[in-house]
Amino acid sequence: MTRRGDRTAGPTSVGPGAVRGLVDAGGEVALLLEIIRLTANGPAVEPLAAAVARMITEATATDVCFVHILDDTERTLILAGATSPFDDHVGQVQLPLGMGVSGWVASHRTPVVITEDKESDPRYLPLPALRGTEFISMASIPMESDRGGLVGVLNVHTVERREFSPRDLELLHVIGRLVAGALDQARQHRRLAMRERAHERFVEQVIANQEAERRRMAGDIHDGISQRLISLSYHLDAATHAVDDDAVEVAVQLAHARDLLGLALDEARVAIGGLRPPILDDLGLAGGLASLARSTPQLPVDIAVDDERLPEHVELALYRIAQEGLQNIVKHAAAALATLRFRVHHGVARLDVSDDGVGFDVTRTQQFGATATPSGYGLASMTERAELVGGRLRIRSRRGVGTTVTVTVPLGHQRERC
């Protein structure tokens, strides 16, 4: 029988009749195969931990099983999986490394077996939520993966007193290593997903801040510079009518000032529209694209767009890409017709800007960079806008056939925030 003072590595010498194995050889193979099958499916951390806990208790005739996983700080164990009735506590029980039996096992990477009288073990820390006093015997095994090191701790408990042999511990150790690899992979996947969501939020916030600043600047121009220019225009008109007939030169100079003022007003209005297209706020992307098509008098534009609202920063990016694409066609393509298409399908927004113009060599474009194309297309800013909102820009072109610029933006989390 295990001595109370020797509980770290399990019993060292046990009579053959006193050892009760966790599971027979056939059951052991079946259990390992089932765990391999389960981990190969790559579920998330909590479902995998819960499924493993259930399988271990069923196969080993133990009463409860707890799977504790290191959190992202790697300083705290969190209960990630448990058998009933403790499954309600998943995610709520936390144990710093070094505290309790599980914390000790995680710190020392060494199994612990307690056959009875847990309260006398200095490492034992009662957790009321897990009702440890109701269980007599326990085995605690570190779960380690070759790539990720320590992943967590696997515990089994029994209501009745039970011996755990070296073979029992070896089996639990093998299970721990099998599960650790899958749990570590699931944990890394979760971390990556969290980083991606954080990146999305960061990009969205950056664009939102830029747009807020542009709105402020547009308002300042409209309320300040534009209003002063308009007021000045009235004064110039009044001065023009007030001069005497013999003051011809004064009238000429005032007329020149009036012309310059008109140009300044036009430039201020263009600047306001460039900072933030008001039509996006009023009519959304569909209305904005339709307005772009109508405001390109040099070229007929065939347009077909879905009336779908997207997050503000995505709408702005697609509007600017379409705007620059149409400008490029007018400047460089020598086209007879442009085509503008926008649709949302299966959670992906797609924008196509096409022409039937002269086209260019896409291979050379990729070789020399988007801003150094032989036809003068400035594609770098369009590519940057697409990538900032998590999208991708693709160019298809052939000389004498025309060009199509396609932007696809997976909406995903972005759609939920529109």
If you had to describe this structure to a student in words, what would you say it looks like?
The longest helix is centred in the middle third of the chain and has 77 residues, at 166-242. The chain starts with 24 loop residues before the first helix and ends with a helix. Helix 1 packs antiparallel against helix 2 (45-60) and helix 1 runs parallel beside helix 4. The strands form 2 sheets. Strands 3-2-1-6-5-4 form a 6-stranded antiparallel beta sheet. The chain is elongated and about 115 Å long. Residues 1-21 and 366-377 have low confidence and may be disordered. It is an alpha+beta fold and 418 residues long. It folds into 2 domains: 25-194, Beta-Lactamase; 283-416, Heat Shock Protein 90 (2-Layer Sandwich), CATH 3.30.565. The chain has 10 helices and 11 strands. One of its GO terms (molecular function) is protein dimerization activity. Its EC number is 2.7.13.3. Keywords: ATP-binding, Kinase, Nucleotide-binding, Phosphoprotein, Transferase, Two-component regulatory system.
Which characteristics define this entry?
418 residues, Beta-Lactamase, Heat Shock Protein 90, 2 domains, 10 helices, 18% strand, disordered N terminus, histidine kinase, GAF, phosphoprotein, ATP-binding
